[in-house]
Design a protein that fits this description.
Elements lengths: L1 H37 L7 E4 L12 E8 L11 E6 L3 E6 L4 E5 L4 E4 L16 E5 L4 E6 L2 E5 L5 E6 L3 H5 L2 E6 L4 E6 L9 E7 L4 E8 L12 E3 L3 E3 L6 E5 L6 E8 L16 H10 L4 E8 L2 E7 L7 E7 L5 E5 L12 E3 L2 E6 L15 H8 L8 E7 L1
Parallel strand pairs: 1-18
Antiparallel strand pairs: 2-25, 3-4, 4-5, 5-6, 7-8, 8-9, 9-10, 11-12, 12-13, 13-14, 15-16, 16-17, 17-18, 19-20, 20-21, 21-22, 23-24, 24-25
Length: 394
């Protein structure tokens, strides 16, 4: 009987010990997850190998090409373009005079911001960034100290003036909409090396910050790249460690999502000998023959990135990446019979590029055009406005 009791006690002790060990492990795991979350480290990042020297034939990548002629009405003509945004129903541009242009997808002009440029109520003289809010169907213009709201015809609706001290003392160059009244605001990178920058979730109905978080930029010195969100939650920085992020639309945390591995062609700070001089860093990035991911968009299971491999225009390539299969196709700039323009946007299997009339012929292979686009191409003239090229991928 004593032996049996001892055996039962031993078994019970072992069971309790296992439970305690499991509990300790679970507690440690929860603390580790929380620590990772707070440090910005998320789930395992998908790594995809990109070999930009393995160039594809463009006809193996592009199914067909569509040309959209933008309106030639008096107000529709644009100076050199700064930024292109593509929505389901609209093209949205701003030029180097800070004028905003909203076009329908068929090229018809909807409105411009010419008449609301100034210093009066409901006017702006400096556009830091802009957005068409698909949740509210309103145009938003980020200005120093606040946001101006317009309808699609640039009729002034309201202005929100930043009252939070963080926003009043900061300088922002990025706005993106996470809801009808919720906006992501990001600080403008400064000409000093900083370990962290802030991003804010701003509620324009309550007129206050509802969340602020810090992030570590991989490199704030790269030019030609604008931070952008595509596919609702995919955030692309000017990042030289080739990692791109997702923003959780529930708690607004940033987590690494995908990493592009360029192998020996990857640039790192060792290429500048550890220099912290901003001008030297920029000069190195301009001249380097390493692969730099400048402009990156996601739509569905596809990722498209504009790659720079030198200071000349012919050193640019476009990488098209299937996130599911990890298949990578690369388009070079000049194929002899056709040039592939710098990507301005990617959405739903289509690469968009806005080009001036005098350059249109360089980017067109007539064998890829449908009958309507052939007619548009044949009718181009010196009076033409910009053209939007839509490269439909296979």
């Amino acid at each position: 009987m004593k032996t049996l009791c001892k055996a039962n006690i031993l078994r019970a002790s072992n069971r309790i010990g296992r439970y305690l060990l499991a509990g300790i492990f679970l507690l440690f795991f929860c603390l580790l997850v929380q620590s990772c979350k707070e440090s910005g480290v998320g789930p395992a990042t998908e790594t995809i190998s990109v070999k930009p020297d393995r160039v594809s034939d463009y006809k193996d990548v592009i199914d067909h090409l569509r040309i959209v002629a933008l309106s030639t009405t008096k107000d529709a003509y644009m100076a050199s373009l700064n930024k292109v945004q593509v929505y389901d129903d609209y093209f949205f541009f701003n030029d180097n005079k800070d004028i905003l242009f909203l076009f329908k997808r068929n090229g018809d002009l909807v409105s411009t911001s010419r008449r609301v440029m100034g210093y009066g109520k409901g006017e702006y003289h400096l556009c830091l960034d802009y957005s068409y809010n698909a949740y509210s169907n309103q145009i938003e213009v980020l200005v120093p100290g606040g946001i101006l709201f317009f309808d699609r015809n640039f009729h002034f609706l309201r202005k929100v003036t930043f009252m939070d001290k963080e926003l009043k003392s900061g300088y922002f160059d990025f706005i993106n909409d996470l809801g009808e009244n919720r906006h992501l605001l990001m600080e403008m990178p400064e000409n000093v090396k900083k370990e962290e920058f802030q991003y804010y979730i701003y509620d324009s109905q309550k007129e206050r910050i509802i969340l602020s978080k810090s992030y570590s930029p991989d490199c704030q010195y790269i030019t030609m790249q604008r931070r952008n969100i595509s596919d609702h939650d995919f955030l692309a920085f000017p990042c030289m460690n080739y990692t791109f992020y997702k923003i959780n639309l529930q708690d607004y945390w940033l987590t690494p999502f995908v990493h592009l591995d360029f192998g020996e062609k990857s640039w790192d700070e060792g290429d500048i000998g550890g220099s912290t001089d901003i001008d030297k860093i920029r000069e190195s990035m301009l001249k380097t023959k390493k692969s730099l991911a400048l402009r990156t968009y996601k739509s569905g299971d596809m990722l498209v990135s504009l790659i720079k491999e030198g200071p000349r225009i012919e050193n640019f390539k476009t990488a098209i990446i299937n996130l599911k299969t990890k298949d990578v196709k690369v388009l070079k700039y000049d194929y002899g019979t056709i040039k592939i323009p710098f990507m301005d946007y990617y959405l739903n299997g289509v690469i968009y590029a806005c080009v001036p009339a005098e350059k249109l012929a360089d980017y067109v292979d007539e064998s890829l055009l449908d009958e309507e686009s052939k007619s548009v191409f044949a009718s181009r003239s010196d009076d033409s406005n910009y053209y939007m090229l839509e490269y439909y991928l296979k």
